[in-house]
Amino acid sequence: MKGPLDGVRVLEIANYIAVPAASSLLAELGADVVKVEVPWGEIYRWATPRRNGYASDLKLGLAFEMDNRGKRAVSLDLALPQAQEALSVLIDRADIVMTNVLPNRLAKFGLDADRLRAERPSLILARVGGFAADGPQANDLGFDQTAFFALSGLMDQQRDPDSPPAFPRPGAGDHATALALVSGVLAALRMRDRTGEGQVVDVNLQQVGLYVTGNDTSQSVVTGEVPPRHDRHAPRNPLWNFYRCADDRWLFLVMLDSNAYWPGLIEAIDRPELAGDERFDDAVKRYKNNRALVAILDEVFATRTLAEWTEHLAGFRVISAPVRTVAEATADPQARENGCFVEVEHPEHGTFLSVAPPFQLSSFRLEGSAPAPMLAQHTEEVLREAGIDEESVAILVAAATR
Question: Nearest Cα to 299, choosing from 325, 318, 271?
């Protein structure tokens, strides 16, 4: 079955994660996505596991593969006038242009929003930056670790009171931003279907960070207060807390309604005497005596390994989860049964697993199984499709493959 975006042409002028991840999802939905890349390849393409600190010697950028699957790749050296002309032709043929190039650099190449929209009123221009595209920081560099994590307050909030900020893992803010960008693009397509008019879709990492942390930011922006940090030794609810197990692993209890789950927890940990302990007989008292209760629970959970507790608690009315490593999470057979991973057949590196698209449609399956394009793989094919003259095609293909 053809995808819902079949016939939609997307031109991606971007690197790293947020925009490529978004346009990859559009490709999954059936769009023809052409990725424009420098002849030497964007740096993300070469981010192999070894370069990211893993022991593996696989010579493939697996994160790049995930965020660029299903596209066609064109390499253009924009120092060449033929490349600049070819890029203009590709833009003229596109329904959507996706970019994270800073506004001042877009203007330098004649790709600013006002000019593109004046020439093509039906064009959808989707832009991602660290900050608002029309604000005072429009041309400031922004990464998810700065604009999304550090400047949103998330980096500071996500730590124990006496701990330094947690170092954020790469790409988390970018992938949240990609989903916001896809939402905006689909809305813009819907509006164009109704009116014939294109849109400029703007998404920025700082704003997505503030939205993702909205439970805190919606209260802080009104009260002016810093949200209380979680202190595992004195939590507001000891049944919503981390506990160390005998093997130095952690169990996470997540029972927000502690009154409802207190009897089940007492039964699960075989401490019936706690039912008669007046210090803990309702949620308020458990909060007032939280340090004493945490000390008791610390002692209890230290008697078994994480695996033993995980298996044991499954038989009781207790909500908990083992705090897994990423390697454990990816090896979980249930995650695989739930469709969280897909097989990709790469022409040079064989079959490997990758992360599946984050949503599905009932009448159209997003496969996620196509490999990312190899560097400059489709340069000649795409340029000829666009009607570029043969002399220019020869020059550009030679420049792309030197």
Answer: 271
